[in-house]
Amino acid sequence: MDIFLILAEAARSAVGPVAAIYALAAIGLNLHFGYTGLLNFGQVGFMLVGAYGVGISVTVFELPLLVGFLVGLGCAVVLALLLGIPTLRLRADYLSITTIAAAEVLRLVYRAGFAEPLTNGVYGIQNLSGEFRTWNVFFDPGERYGFGAFSFSGNHMWLMTVTWGLVALMALLTWLLMHSPWGRVVKGIREDEEAVRSLGKNVFAYKMQILVLGGLIGALAGSMMAVHQGAIQPDQFKPQVTFFLWVILLLGGAGRVFGPILGSMAFWFLMNFTDKFLRALGAEGYLPFLSGPDYGAIQLAFVGVMLVLLIVFRPQGLIGDRKEMLINVK
Amino acid sequence: MRTRLVTVLLALITAFLVIPGAVATADEQGGESLHGQIGQPDDRDQGVEGILITVFQGEDEIDAVETDSDGIWEVELPEPGGYRLVLDQESVPSEFAVRETTLVVDGVAEVEVEANEQRRVLIALENPGESAGQDESSPSPDDEATEDDDAAADEEVVAVEGVSGGFGERFVQLTAAGLLFGLVIAISAIGLSLIFGTTQVINFSHGDMVTFGAMMALLFSTGAAGLGNSLLAIFAGLGIAILLGAFMEGKLNRTTLIILQWASVFGGIALATLLGVMGDDLGWQVPLWAAAGISVVMGAVLGGTMERYLWRPLRKRNVALIQMFIVSIGLALVVRHVILVLFGASRTRYAGYQVQELVHFGPISMPPRDLVIMAVAIVVLVLVACLLQFTRIGKAMRAVSDNRDLAESSGIDVDRVTLYVWFLGGGLASLGGVLFGLNQVVDYEMGFRLLLLMFAAVILGGLGTAYGAMVGGITVGLVAMLSTLWFPTQLMQAWALALMILMLLVRPQGLLGQRERVG
Predict the structure, then answer these.
(1) Percent of chain B scored above 90 by pLDDT?
(2) Distance between the two ends of chain B, CA-based, in angstroms?
(3) B286 C-beta neighbours (distance < 10 Å), count
(4) How far apart are the CA of B139 and the nearest CA of chain A, in angstroms?
(5) Of A33, A297, A311, the CB nearest to B327
(6) What is the pLDDT of residue A53?
């Protein structure tokens, strides 16, 4: 077993496209939870509508990719309004139940038989990366860039540039928003909703705006996911994805601009490291009681343990502020 | 502290950046290839062996492969470009046919492969005639409960059996099915609602407690050996420790109590290891009803353990509620995937209860097992209602659920009541799992699928009220089943959710909830 090879592989995945996509989605979740205290357990639903916005527009209606992105974003706005209108006036727990259920129902609807003309059911939509790759003017698709363990093909480099660029843009947007009067009201809602209401602010409207905004960022992440993979299936958007995003957010530090970014890199590093390490151990025969699919399950159990331990022992994550994380449901 | 952590992390990342990189990356060294896995239509985990796949580039044959015993195949390609993949229809076992998709037409698929892409090609099999639109009312002359093929092939759907005939008849039949489904939801959801009432925690791991119950019953009814014995030993240890804590507190001095508790926990673990090592020498098997009993007790212990060793310490630490929700999600992931590792992803049914003579009541015909499920569910619901209404502990549960502080100040031992609520909730969740598994199939995600309906049920009935959960559960079951009269089966859960959202708009406190400000 080559421990350095495993470490290098894991580090490579920490800067790769998947980490960037999850960082983007986690930024949206950070706006919801970290700054406003909204318990969104269905971020994957926003990613799903983003991905399928691109997928259906491009393959079924043969629209340009850019329109696909816009369709995805539009769907995210609709979804956010549908979720927000009934629940945002209520306690935070109602939103959490509604979002987790809505995301799962969306997945079931997209994979259902009657939706097959549009979504192609469980088999998903394919051939989505083409147009995005034609936009690539910086990198030669055949060439490999980078050095050593950190080499990516031209296509991946292009995707990473765009996605990390979007991450930087959204981080900047978060920073600007949260240092504006609007952001102070939003953070006030997290600390004490009643106090903000008593100052004459329309708490519901602010919550709705932030739900839409975070959902839009989530949908953008979903669209980038569709473009990155070139193929999407509904079953990629299981609730696990949302839970990954929560671990990322809590690992990095909720309520911090760089929290989700750092969290995503650390999370994918850890995920890949544990996976490769376990498999290497298995390949050398140390784990005779495990068979192939068990490794994935162990990894997910590990994510769960990580979630529990983080909340119990370090709720502020790597760079968070412990005082800010002592928020409670009122 | 914070800066130190960041520094360490950055140092770590830098260290990997400068690792000399002669290393080729594993996932990209292979060049281009096509691969995939062909599974049986009813159970995609079961591969189909010996299907011949040939890949052409233009007119040149690149390679021909056969699927292995797991149904996996792979073809290495020389270069990026367009390829044609031909499936030898003759080699497909005669009981299956190749499913027509946009990609695979008549057993031929055209694919574009990019540089360094390992492309997965999805090829699916189906039972012949499935896509041609099956006869709606499959006539079964021997009147046996036949499998609904379509529903069995789709693992995410709750199957409805024995529904046929005109609208009126189907309405009655689906009402019966909905009542059954609703009773199962109600049983599982009471715990969820009571736990919310007493602790304000939404237990996202409740669904996985349902799965746990179903799996335990499956384990003990199909023959428990090393694994079952070990699990029993661990749970016995934990159960004794919790009961000691609940009953002996105050009678023994604190140190003795703690020592006894830990001794029992570690004793259980040690015994489990021993039994695990002995393995299959101690094999035994009980009928399903006894296995269900064992699983209910184990579910109660599981609930009690969670409360005693996780939630109570967290409450003592004053961990905020939002954090508790996240902990329960983490717990759900752990339970679900430990079950997956231990029992695998296969979908099984309780043996011996599948093919039964249908019993007819006018237009309704049900297998006897469904009647038993309904009877058990109704009896248990009545018993729970009696418990809550007439016994001391039941009144205490309702009091704590109503107002924790007031209950505490009037002398109720809130911690102990909460523990009992978790016992009750865990036990009922297990029972719900067994009943759900008996009616449908047992697999590691069944509980999570039921969880969404349970949420709908408790919100509909009113969060925190036990009777609300019963009413809500039955309503949700009926709505979900009756919606299939007009809408596709896959939308069942969507209608339950729609009902829930409607309720939140109109009466957020739920049917039986008290009018209070919930926002």
Answers:
(1) 28
(2) 37
(3) 15
(4) 24
(5) A311
(6) 93
- Is-contact A139 A157, C-beta < 8 A? yes
Q: How confident is the model at residue B80 (pLDDT cuts 50, 70, 90)?
A: low
Same structural domain, B69 and B185: no
B276 part of a folded domain: no
Question: What confidence tens digit (pLDDT) does each residue in B410-448 have?
Answer: 999 999 999 999 999 999 999 999 999 998 888 888 998
Does residue A220 surpass a pLDDT of 90?
yes
pLDDT digits (tens, 9 = 90+) for A111-146: 888 888 888 888 888 888 888 888 887 787 777 777
Q: Do A301 and B341 touch (CB under 8 A)?
A: yes
Whole-angstrom distance, CA of residue B402 vs CA of residue B405: 9
Structure confidence by residue, pLDDT tens digits, B206-221: 999 999 999 999 988 8
Question: Can you tell me which residue has the tokens 């239509």?
Answer: B41
Distances in Å between the Cα of B75 and the Cα atoms of B67, B93, B104, B114 are 11, 21, 17, 15
pLDDT of residue B96: 73
User: Is B236 among the domain residues?
Assistant: no
Q: Give mean pLDDT, residues A30-49.
A: 93
| DSSP states along B42-93 | S-TTSB----EEEEEETTEEEEEEE--TTSEEEEEESSSEEEEEEE-GGGS-
Where in the sequence is the domain holding B372, given as residue range(s)? Answer: 167-223+285-345+363-506
A111 interaction partners in chain B (CB closer than 8 Å): 156, 490
Q: How many CB pairs under 8 A join A and B?
A: 210
A4 touches chain B (CB under 8 A): yes
Angle of CA points B482, A100, B464, to nearest 5°: 75
What CATH class has A3-325?
mainly alpha
State the total domains in chain B. Answer: 2
**Nearest by CB: A112 against B13, B26, B491:** B491
- Measured N-to-C along each axis, helices B446-461 and B167-199 cross at an angle, to the nearest 10 degrees, of 80
Q: Which residues contact A315 (CB under 8 A, 6 or more apart)?
A: A250, A322, A325, A326, B319, B323
Is residue B64 over pLDDT 60? yes
Helices (H) and strands (E) in chain B, counts: 16, 12
Domain boundaries, chain A: 3-325
